[in-house]
Predict the structure.
Amino acid sequence: MDSSRGSHRGRGYGHRGRGRGPVSDGDRDPNRRWRPAAPTLPPRPSPSRPPPPPVDEIVTELSRVSIGDVQTPSHGMGTVDKIFPAKRPDKGGVLAVGHVRLVVNHFPIRFNPQKTILHYDVSIRQDLPSEDSRSAARISKSNLSMIRNKLFMENPREFPLSMTAYDGEKNIFSAVPLPTGQFTVKLMEGEGEKERSYVVSITCVNELKLAKLKDYLAGKLLQIPREIMQGMDLVMKENPARRMISFGRNFYPLESRRGDDLGHGIAAFRGFQHSLKPTSQGVALSLDYSVLAFRKKMAVLDFLREHVHGFNVSNFGKFRYEAEQALKGLKVTVTHRQTKQKYIVAKLTDKTTRNLYFPEEGSDHRGPTREIYLVDYFWRKYGKEIRYLDIPCLDLGKGSKKNYVPMEFCVLVEGQRYPKEQLDWEAGRMLKQMSLVSPRDRQMRIHEMVRADDGPCGGEVSKNFGIEVDMNMTKVVGRVIEPPGLKLGDRGGNPIRIQVDPGKCHWNLVNNSVAEGKSIERWAILDFSSFDRNKLIHEKFIPELVERCRKLKIRMEKPLFTQKASMRALSNVRSLRDIFGAVEHEVYNYGVGRLQFLLCVMSRKDNGYKYLKWISETEVGIVTQCCLSNLANRGNDQYLANLALKINAKLGGSNVELFERFPLLDSSHFMFIGADVNHPGSRNTTSPSIAAVVGSINWPAANRYAARVRPQDHRKEKIVNFGEMCLELVHSYARMNQVRPAKIVLFRDGVSESQFDMVLNEELVDIKRAFRTKNYNPSITLIVAQKRHQTRLFPERDLGGGHNGNVPPGTVVDTTIVHPFDFDFYLCSHYGGIGTSKPTHYYVLWDEHGFASDPLEKLIYNLCFTFARCTKPVSLVTPVYYADLAAYRGRLYHEAVMDERSPASRASVSSFSSGASTSISSAGSFEDGLYKLHGDLENVMFFV
C-alpha cells in the first residue's frame, strides 16, 4: 500500500505533462518564435582542465559567468548572460569489470547542410462580421487540419502538400517557399450544413539553415538551434500523422491486429513514439515500441453490447446508468448524413426517442411555436426510419444547445484511449504482456516500425526535406561497472561485508540482518479489518512479524494495544479524526509518551488511504505503516521482511549501507538532494502541481532522508521556493551532524532539454541566493535524471545479456549515442526480470566538483543500492526515487483536502491553482494547511 506511486510525466522540447502520456525529446512548442542565434564557442577546452571555481556571486548579478574555460560574452545591453550545461570532462569512462556489445534504437540521420527549412506561422479564424468576431467558437484541431488540407489541395502548385509539415495548430515548416498573406477557405463540414468561411493568415517567421545544425554538432555554436531540431522533428512526424492515430506524442495504427482484442469493445493497439536527438555520431532518430488500449471504432449500440455486461437494447432502462457512464465524454460521428464532424456525448436524453420533440425549423416565433417529433424530423429531413424508439438518444449539444441523435446513427471515433486501470484482470494481463515484451521482440518490432510505409521514414515528406535515415540500429560497446560491497549485519547483528550476486545484484536477508535496527517498544495496531470477513488474525500475524523483525535485529516488542475500526470509517475524515483521538487517549492512559508508529490494517485497497496519510502526517504527527489483512495472514517471509524494512527506515534505522565510502573526491561532508514535480492528470485543469525536495541528513552512510513538499502553479515544471526548501534540508543536516555540508550533489527529475535553461538560470540561481542569505556557499553539482526517453539498449548477441536477454545491471554507455560535447551518459542500474530494461539518462548541467566520468558514474550506481525498501539496486538514483514518492504523497494530501471541503471551499482552492493570474504566495493558508508536515515527521522517511 505504501509503495504506491504517482502518475508521471512526459518530457520533450515542449512542456512536460506527469499525468499524462509520454513526451518525447522532440516535442514542439506551437507558439515558439524566432530568436537570435546563439553566440559561437571558443575552442573546446582540454579534458585535463582544472575544475571550475564555485560561483561567488548570484548569477543575475554577473555580467560574465565562467564555466571551465568557456565564457559567455556580455552583450552590453542590460541582458543577463546565461549559464550553459557543463561540458564533458573526458572521452568517457574506462573502469569496468566487463564489456558488452550493444545495439541501440538510434537510427543515424543524414541531412543536407545546404538546405533551408522555411518556418511559417499559421493563423486560422472564422470569417464573421466584426460584431460577431468575439463570439467565434474555438476551431477544433481536426477542423484546422481540414482547412489546411483544403487550402493546399485547391492550390497544389503554390502549396505542395508533400513539401510541408504541419503541427495541426500554428506552425508549418516547408522545403519550398509558400505564398504569404491571407487566404479564404470555404468548408462545408457535412451534408445539409451551412458552408463556413475561414481566413488563413500565413507569415514567414524564420529561415532555418541546416548549416547551423552542422556547426552546433561540430562544437562551433554554444546553444542547440532548437527551432531547427523542432522543424526536423515535425517533418519526421508528418507521415505517421497523416496515416495513423495520433495520441499525444505517440502514433498508433487505425486498426488493431487480430488477436489483440481485449474484449468489452476495447483493443490493444501497437504503435511507437519517436524523437530526434543530437548525438556524438550526429542527429539520430530514436524510436521505441508502445502499446495502449483504445475503444474500437464501432457503432455505439454494438459498443454497449460488448462493453456493458448483459446489455439488452429491449430492456435499456435496466442498463441506463452503465450506458451513460460508458458513453459520456466520448467522441462520435453520425451516419444519417455525410459529415466529418466529431461530436462529444454530453449525456443521454431523459425521454425516449419516440417522445422527443423540438421547435420546428422556420416556425414563426411571433405566433404559436410548432413542434416536430424527432422521429418525423429524421424521416422528412434524411429519409431515415428510426428502428429503436424506446431508448434514449445521445445529446451531442454544447452548453444550452441541444442536439439529439438516435444511438443507431452514431459511431465511436477511433483513437479514444481506455484507462488501463479500468480494464478487468484478464484484459489488464494481456495488455501488460504486450507492453513488457522481451528485448528480442521489442528490437524486432522497432525495426518493423522504422521500415513501415506509415512510419516516420515512409512517404515522400522527409526525403523532400533532404533527410535520410539509416535503417540499422547504432552499435556501441557498453561497460559494466562493478557493484559495491554492502554492509549488513550477521545473525548476531555484527557488521559484515557482503558482495552481491553479479548477475542480478540482489542480496539476501535470510541469514543476515539490517545494518542498524531500530528498537521498537511503543507501537499499536489500528485494525480497519476488524468487522470484515477477511479480518486480520492477530494471534498469528503479530508473533510472526515480531519474530521476523527480531531476526533482522530490529528489536520489536508486542503492540501496546489494538484499536478496532471499520473500513467504512477509513473513508470518512471525521470518523478518522475521532479514531486517532481515541488512539491518542489510549496512549495517554498507558503513560508512554508518543507512539513510535501505528500499524494500519485494511481488508482491501481503499480510497481512504489518502485521508489516513493526510491526517496522520500533517495533523497527528505519527508514522503509519499500512498492510492488507489477506497478505498479512499468509505470513509469507518475504512479505514480513518487506514490512520490517519499511518500518525500520521510517523510524530512522538503516537497512543497508555501502561498506566503503562513496567514491567522492575527498572526505568532506556531502549531501545528496533529489527534486521532482508531480503534475495532475491531463483532464484536470485546476489542481496545483506538487513539488518535493528530499535531502540526505546523515553522513557518511547518506541513506536517511528528510522531505519538504510544496504546491506549485498548475502544470508548471519550475519549482517555486526551491532554494527555501533546500535551505530547510541543510538546517536538518546541520542539526544531525553539527556541521553544514560542504558539498552538495543535486539530482533533478522530470525536465527535458528545453527546460535545462530554466533549471540552470532560475532554479540553481534561487538555491544559491537562498544559501547566500545564510552566508553559506557549498560547491554544487546539478544532474538531471531522465526516465521518459525512447533510448533502449539491446545486447548484440543473446550471450551479452542475462537469461532474459537484457543488459546486465551496471551497464553504462557514455560514447556514440550521448551528446556531442555535453556531459551525459546512460546507466542501467537494475536487473530487468521482465520486459526490456530502460536505462536512466543522466545529464550533468553544473559541476563545481570537477567530476570525471568514472567517479560520477560509480557514485550514481552506488547510490542506487541504498534504496531502503528493497534488496536490489533500483533503476533510478535513490534521491530522485524518494522525491517522486514524496511528491506523490503531496498529491494524496491535496486530493484528501479537496474531497473533504465543501463546493464553495473547493472553488476557492481551484481559483488558486487555475492560472498564472494567481500567485503562489497568495495561497499561504492553503499551503500551510495542506502540505505542512507535523513537526515530529519533518526529518523522518514517512514517504517510503
